[in-house]
Amino acid sequence: MRRFIRLMLSLTLAFSVSIFHYNSLWALGNGFEEEVFSAFVKMGISEEKAAELVNKIECGKTLDCFSKEYSNIAPVAEEWNDEGYTATFEYPDGSRAQVSINSSIIEGTITGGNYSSGSKWYVWNGAKVMATWGVVTASYYANFEGSTGFGYISSVYDRGISVLAGSYSNVSLSIVQSYATSTSPAQARLFFEYSSIGNAVNSTLYLRLFVPYNGSPYARLSIG
After folding, report:
1. How many domains does the chain fold into?
2. Could you tell me which residue, 202 or 107, shows the higher pLDDT?
3. Residue 151 forms beta bridges with which residues?
4. Secondary structure of 169-210 in the HEC alphabet?
5. pTM listed for this prediction
6. Closest Cα partner for 98 from 119, 118, 76, 115?
């Protein structure tokens, strides 16, 4: 029985002054030849070449746009306009990828661990701080506490970074400010550098945990 693979991959990333969209095709399942063929054509690929790509997927082969061999390929077209930046990549087998960039700020989440609280205080141990930026997910664990007029981060540990497309380097996890003040929250930070496929996007990312002098803790992922 013939096995046909289908996967529509939409990668949405944020970059310092914009958001990154990377759209491409893969395959998983049975009987999706026409759907995948049409999607290739909509990407600007000729019908003849689209048929060749569909056949390549049916044979269980990897499209060049997903091959590490071509991870540093240069774009064939670039455009800057009021909405941001767009780059188009073409690969030897005729497959394509497109990158677009706009602005965004990512709000993170704080979940799990052991949480206890009273009317004016809380203690949170083993909390997971996490945020996702398109194909990049970053996280770490933290122990911290707060109350009225008090915020404190005692430790951060077990950082994790997952990248679906591209690579990361220069990772650092630290407590920037242990105690909150009336003008500045306690802060922990996971820092790393990200490079997309083809190096179309190169950026530094900071996943920060904030424990304020008054109020609830929060997390943010910033890109610079």
Report:
1. 2
2. 107
3. 146
4. EEEEEEEEECECCCCCCEEEEEEEEEECHHHCCEEEEEEEEE
5. 0.59
6. 76
